Amino acid sequence: MTMLLNSAMNVTPALPSFEAITEGARRATGVMASGAPRPDPEVVVIARRRQFSAAEKRRLVNEAERCKARGELGAFLRRERIYSSMLASWRKQIGAADRAVLAPKRRGPKPDLVARQNAALSRDIVRLQKKLERAELIIDAQKKTVRGTRPADLGRPERERVMTLVAELAPRIGMEERVALKLIKYFLA
To answer: What is the predicted pLDDT for the residue at 72?
Structure first.
């Protein structure tokens, strides 16, 4: 046996022919024997997640439910390259979609998003217009009063004018009656 090993180790390989060297050299340079350049063997694989349409999901779930024999479902999953968890989530999605289709529809006109937004904006406009009117009335009252710092500095006719303005403006600007009476008493002092 040792003789057999020794003889096998002493064997010198046969020299390749001239044709084989030139063919190998051509392959190393990337040029084929026909003269056309070889395609780049480096392939960059971009992984993309598979997306299943609703019809595909229904088909796969129905086919999986037809698998009754032992091992048949596993073979189906391997063949389709899907997981059992995918089937479970698809069953839930299909059930939810079926329940949504069978749910009772609301009667009457459908809510219009634009109409709701217009109504909300109209309410805001009315609210802001009232607020502006109140502010303008207060500013007018301030303009109409005399620049005196105390009511005592005002003459009797001016004090009466201020009191009538307060009495007129109080309900229009939302001032409580008790606050208006205090203000009038202040001017009478």
So the answer is: 94
